Amino acid sequence: MELDIKHRTAQDIYAVCGPVLIRIADGANTELGDIDRIHAWFTEMLAHQPNIGMLLVAHHGNPPPSMATIRYAVQQMGHMQERIVVGVALLGLGFWADTARAVTAGLMRLLRGGAVILASSPEAAIEGMVLELVGLDGAALLAATAELERVR
After folding, report:
1. DSSP 8-class letter at 50
2. Residue 141: closest CA among 80, 81, 61, 56
3. Tens of pLDDT, residue by residue, the chain (152 residues)
4. Which CATH number fits the domain that encloses residue 12?
5. What predicted TM-score, i.e. pTM, was given to this entire model?
6. What is the rounded CA–CA span in Å between residue 97 and residue 138?
7. CA gap 138, 130 in Å, rounded
8. Which residues, including other chains, have CB under 8 Å from residue 120's CB and lie 6 or more apart?
9. Domain tally for the chain?
10. What is the residue range of 79's domain?
C-alpha cells in the first residue's frame, strides 16, 4: 500500500495508507484544526470506500484532547462513526498510560457505534482493526506505521 504523508509537525505526523489514516503523536495537542483536517481526509476517503480506519499511535506523555476538542470532534464526525474503525495504541506505562486508557475508554462511550480498538502497541491495535475492516492488509499497515516512526 502506498503511504501518502498528509501533514507533519515536530510532534506528530499524519499519513494515509490504503483505507487507513495514521496519526503518530508524540507531545502533540489535538486542536480544532486537527479535527478539521481529519474530517476533510475522512470525507475524501469515504467518497471512495465504504469503510475506513484510523490508527492513532500516542507516545508516552502525549496530552489528551480537551473536552472542547472532543465535543467538536463528535459534532463534526458523529455521522461518520458507523463507517470508521479506530485503532488506538497507547505507548507507555504507569500513571500516564492508566490515565490515557481511562480517557480513551470515556471517548469510546461517546463515540458509540463505530468499532474502537484500544491497545498498548501498534501491532495489537492493527490486529483488532483487521478483524473489523474487511480486506485490510495488517502487515502493510504495520510496515507503513514503522516507516512513519522512522521518518517523523
Report:
1. S
2. 56
3. 899 999 999 999 999 999 999 999 999 999 999 999 999 999 999 999 999 999 999 999 999 888 898 889 889 988 898 899 999 999 987 777 777 777 776 666 665 567 889 999 999 999 999 999 999 999 999 999 999 999 98
4. 3.30.750.24
5. 0.92
6. 24
7. 6
8. 89, 90, 91, 97
9. 1
10. 3-151
